[in-house]
Amino acid sequence: MNGIFITLIVLIIIAALLLIAVVLLQNGKDGGLATNFTSANQALGVRQTATILEKATWYLVAFILVVSIITVFVGRGNTQSGNTDAVSTGILNQAATPDQTPAFPVDIPQTDPTQDNDAQ
Asked: Were both Cys, which of 60, 81, 113, 114 would link to 19 (CB 3.0–4.6 Å)?
């Protein structure tokens, strides 16, 4: 794989983990995990901490969105020429014409429905 592609995937994973941490630190109805960090609340103020965490959430979401879109375009360049894709090779465009009939086996064993095959 391409080194840039792997780097972008790692960045997305790190940003997702940071986003999880930031969301858990935010004050909810019950206080959230941010109540455990009282020193940060006293130094910055409760409203200031909430604003920083909210901004961090939006920045991380935007970062993940942008890097994910970039990863799609970088990932398209990673396809090797040896890979066969049904759409790109035109297999899907080669549909059977209505006058063609599928080939069935000619020698179908005929069994007598009145005869019990298990008794033999």
From this structure: 60
Cβ within 8 Å of residue 68, ≥6 positions away? 12
Instruction: Round to whole Å and give the CA distance between 9 and 15.
Output: 10
Q: How many H helices and E strands in the chain?
A: 4, 0
Prediction pTM value: 0.51
CB neighbour list of residue 5: distance below 8 Å, 6 or more residues apart: 71, 74, 75, 78
The CA–CA distances, whole Å, from 7 to 2, 17, 44, 74 equal: 9, 15, 34, 11
Amino acid at the residue 117 = N
Our CA angle for 26, 27, 33, nearest 5°, is 70
Structural contact between residues 27 and 34, judged by C-beta atoms closer than 8 angstroms: yes
**CA distance linking residue 116 with residue 108, whole number of Å:** 19
